[in-house]
Amino acid sequence: MKTKTTIISLLTASILAAGLFLLVIKQIPKTKEVINTDSTVIAICPAKVPVEEKPLICTPPPVPHPAQAETQTLKKTKAQVEVLSIVEDAAPIIAEEEIVCCEALVTTSSSDYYDQEINRNEYNQLAENKFRKVKNEPLSTFSIDVDAASYGTIRRYINEGQNPPADAVRVEELINYFSYSYEQPVGKDPVKITTEIGSCPWNKENQLVRIGLKAKEIPSENLPASNLVFLVDVSGSMYGPDRLGLVKSSLKLLINNLREEDRVAIVVYAGEAGVVLPSTSGSNKQKIREALDELTAGGSTAGGAGIQLAYDIARKNYIREGNNRVILCTDGDFNVGVSSSEGLERLVEKERKSGVFLTVLGYGMGNYKDNKMQVLAEKGNGNHAYIDNIQEANKTLVHEFGGTMYAVAKDVKLQIVFNPEQVQEYRLVGYESRLLNNKDFNDDTKDAGEMGAGHTVTAFYEIKPNNAPHTMQFAEPELLTIRLRYKAPYSDVSQLIENKLKANSSNKLSPDFYFASAVAMFGQMLRNSEYKGTGSYNQVISLAQSGLVNDRQGYKREFIRLVETINGLTAATNVYAH
Q1: Within a 10 A sphere around the Cβ of 310, how many other Cβ atoms?
Q2: 235 with 299: CB under 8 angstroms?
Q3: Are 450 and 352 spatial neighbours (Cβ–Cβ below 8 Å)?
């Protein structure tokens, strides 16, 4: 009797479950699969009648944090088992196609989409600068670099509890993320050179030379009118709150500061490129915001076509002696049309001659193509920042708007001439991707970096003093000579500035020297550089604290917290390893 009752109860429960399942199925509209370029289903969305004005774009599910992936996979498997169990019990009355639909709905999850993109970040390999003997190579020539993307990238890795890849660490970009108190330029030149020398903190036998550049400041209200083109990647890889969602929030910060004389157009690209908003006055902020709000992500990535269209729009609305600039927002995953680094390089090299500058803003992680972003920024008269949160967007697009968006000097090159009587060997810290041939310094056809209004640039040389008897007979012999070439934004002829550094090691070091050298040491630690010497994270923290001045926005304090975090992660890893 007990067994019979149990069987009846189970049959009743199965019938009720099957009936409930049929009721739910009837409420589910017919579905439509969106097929990716590799023939895989990336989303299953309710089928709707397309509207010509606003065609339906089905977007993939949200991307979870890596820590959630395993948990979500387990939940997905459990859900599949439970639903398929009910389906089997209700087999006589449920059609086969309905079973397939139900299974598809359960198996489509955010972790599936995440798995397609994990560990696909790409960075250019860097061969670290080595020591050079002055008697053989007295000249050192390179382009300045105002990019700060590497700092945002390593910050994201560390905040997620990971060590950044060595090639993601560009030491000069870590140093130049911060502004320093260099003297303002005076006279006709828009750039001023500052120098300083002290003991090298990671190798006490050597000295460290700091070369600082300061571009003239221009109040925001006095900046020339802007002709901006927002070029937004809306392909499938840009789906998510830290990608297209953050792009929209970032650009809205910039929109808030537009003036009536400024203009903005919006171009998007996925499988193909198109104009979402024609060039519009900055006084019509609501119209620009609404155009941004309409953007959704889905499809492949025809980045080359988007870049070409954006430059076409910028040229069409060109403002003479204004700020003409394309602002590209992307993860760099170009896969349709012109997509190789070489092809993109040729495209932007051609377009930079038009007088239109380029700002590259990187978003997302897991599928981030930093190598292509670097090519675009370096070859397209541009700069490159990585936006990992809304605070970074505010720093780049609001607090440093003039530096990011308006160049006061272009093709800025440095050439250092070392005195063999004073210096035996030297090594440039960072700038590996910015090195130039010595003959390129006087060649005005060779491209180099741009400096925006108020920008500061810092370069360090680690030098080995020449302790041999000196033949030069004056009290303060020259240690080195600094030559700088730049062009005005609308000129093709360069101007020359020279400055000399005397061999005087008794000068009092500034707080900026301590802080910047701490950042340089930190970068070499992250790269596990063969030249890191006696450097340690504890020493980085101590040096940085000695230079903790002029930190109104808190960026330097945040740096110290990052070093403390990676120091803790390293200690924990070492304990676990033993």
Answers
A1: 27
A2: yes
A3: no
528: phi > 0 → left, psi -120 to 50 → alpha, else beta; which?
A: left
Q: Is the model's pLDDT at 51 over the cut of 60?
A: no
Q: 144 by DSSP, 3-state: which?
A: coil
Judged by phi (left if over 0) then psi (alpha if -120 to 50, else beta), residue 398 lies in alpha
Beta bridge partners of 143: 413
**Spatial distance between the Cα atoms of 568 and 572, rounded to a whole number of angstroms:** 6
Q: pLDDT tens digits for 434-447?
A: 999 999 999 999 99
CA distances from residue 363 to 245, 297, 378, 387, 566 in whole angstroms, order as listed: 10, 14, 18, 6, 23
Contact 113, 63 (CB under 8 A): yes
DSSP letter string, 159-178:
HTT-PPPGGG--HHHHHTTS
Identify the sign of the CA torsion 398, 270, 266, 145: positive
**Confidence at 224, pLDDT banded by 50, 70, 90:** very high
Q: What is the maximum alpha-carbon separation in the chain?
A: 117
Where does 46-123 have alpha helices with state H? 66-89, 96-107, 110-115
Between CA 312 and CA 302 the distance in angstroms is: 16
Rounded to whole angstroms, what are the CA distances from 515 to 460, 463, 512? Answer: 12, 19, 5
Pairing of strands 382-386, 449-452: unpaired
457: Cα separation from own chain's centroid: 18
The conformational region for residue 307 under phi > 0 = left, psi -120 to 50 = alpha, else beta, is alpha
Supply the pLDDT for residue 348: 81
Please answer whether residues 212 and 180 qualify as being in contact, where contact means their C-beta atoms are separated by less than 8 angstroms: yes
- Match 């929030």 to its residue by tokens: 249
Residue 313 vs residues 231, 306, 308, 459, 565: alpha-carbon distances, Å: 10, 11, 9, 37, 45
Please say whether the beta carbons of 267 and 274 come within 8 A: yes
Identify whether the C-beta of residue 159 lies closer than 8 Å to the C-beta of residue 405.
no
pLDDT band at residue 426 under the 50/70/90 scheme: very high
Torsion of CA 307, 309, 310, 313, to 10 degrees: 160
Q: Which two tokens stand for residue 77?
A: 């498997």
Report DSSP letters for 187-212, one per residue: TT-SEEEEEEEEE-TT-TTSEEEEEE
- Residue whose C-alpha is closest to residue 532's, from 523, 519, 541, 542: 523
Tokens of 42: 């990336």
* CA-to-CA separations, 53 to 188, 293, 406, in angstroms, rounded: 53, 15, 36
